[in-house]
Request: fold
Amino acid sequence: MLIPATQVRVGMVIMHNDELHRVFHVMHVTPGNWRGMVQTKLRNLRSGNTAEHRFSSSDKVDRATLEQNEMEFLYADGETFHFMNTETYEQIELTEEHLGDARKFLLPNMKIDVESFEERPLGVSLPKNVDLKVEETAPAIKGATAAAQLKPATTETGLVVQVPSFISVDDVIRVATETGEYVSRAKD
Reply:
């Protein structure tokens, strides 16, 4: 499906130079009196190589149509992540290369959409936010306000997030999967 280059978004999979690429950075540039451009960073899904490409705002981009199957994340075995189709109970494996940063948001028994192209799994589509338990962080600072005082916290998946000073170990926090930033304390 052809779309204008100005509609390219982070996370999309596009066909570029006859190969599938995932977009992981987009910036619209309008330099002075020149025509607008869309500066992108693309990761080749076959080779894993990354490259930058500049599209003219009038260019058309071929967006790949991906199949999505709901699967349950079972467990990680080193660099291999195991998923099970919730309807057929068929299991597949994805590597760290397939998942990229998404692996830091996966919890066992989590239901997630696995994206495939021509029946070949490519990666996962994460929900907007994920709730993660804090495993390690500095103690809460007495009398600290919630504004502007951040500290690092390591979650159960190994993701390190900057959190407000009132967050402590065993708290469950909500993290935005697109940016990896703290959103709020999760409701129980």
